[in-house]
Specification:
This is Alkylated DNA repair protein AlkB. The protein is of the alpha+beta class. The chain has a single domain (14-213), classed as Alpha-ketoglutarate-dependent dioxygenase AlkB-like (Jelly Rolls, Sandwich), CATH 2.60.120. The protein is 12% helix and 31% strand. It has helices at residues 33-46, 97-109, and strands spanning 15-19, 22-25, 63-68, 71-75, 78-82, 119-125, 131-134, 146-152, 155-159, 169-173, 178-181, 190-192, 207-213. The structure holds 2-oxoglutaric acid and fe (ii) ion.
Length: 216
Amino acid sequence: MTLDLFADQPLEKRIEPICEGAVILRGAAAEEAPELIETIRENFAVSPPRQMKTPGGHTMSVAMSCCGEYGWVTDEKGYRYQAEDPVTGRPWPSMPARFSKLATEIASQAGFPDFVPDACLINRYEPGSKMGLHQDKDEVDFSQPIVSVSLGLPQVFQFGGTTRSERPVKIPLQHGDVVVWGGASRLRYHGVLTLKAGNHPMTGACRYNLTFRRAR
Ligand SMILES: O=C(O)CCC(=O)C(=O)O
Ligand SMILES: [Fe+2]
């Protein structure tokens, strides 16, 4: 008899371990995707996606917006979380209950039962956009995980070690997939490879990514 740990999970909804503290929940956001995408567009109408500059002066290829109590920003002064959108001078749009509920539920399925996000970074990748290997380390409490939702076009996620030199694994992420990393994996380097051109029925020629964080 072969032991199949995933025997009771439908193929399109498997939970796949990456390493200690990190899992992919395939399709976990697929059902809610239409509402999530509509909410992203509403958010963009208030706090528009923008290509920010790194402290080194490089313009990021991904366009970002945020919602929640805090938003992640970068400029010549550095990386940080702040309560106001620097473009509008107003607070970020509040985090919709639909967003926080989904993030809390999925974190708990991944083994992080008390996750309550106070920040959601909304990434919009267009063909040619990527995000280089980095650590998410501007948050205060590393006992809280990161919950990362993929919508629209597929993009290859890279998940590496706690040092930049460790060779990352490449994981193709599809519409509706969610990656959660925390615990021993919380400070692992990660990023996404250049988005290939394509057309997705729900997002057109782009991929959206939501990363839920506990900033403070
Ligand atoms: O787009 C992704 O899948 C990863 C995004 C990410 O790592 C981030 O926003 O910090
Ligand atoms: Fe990240």
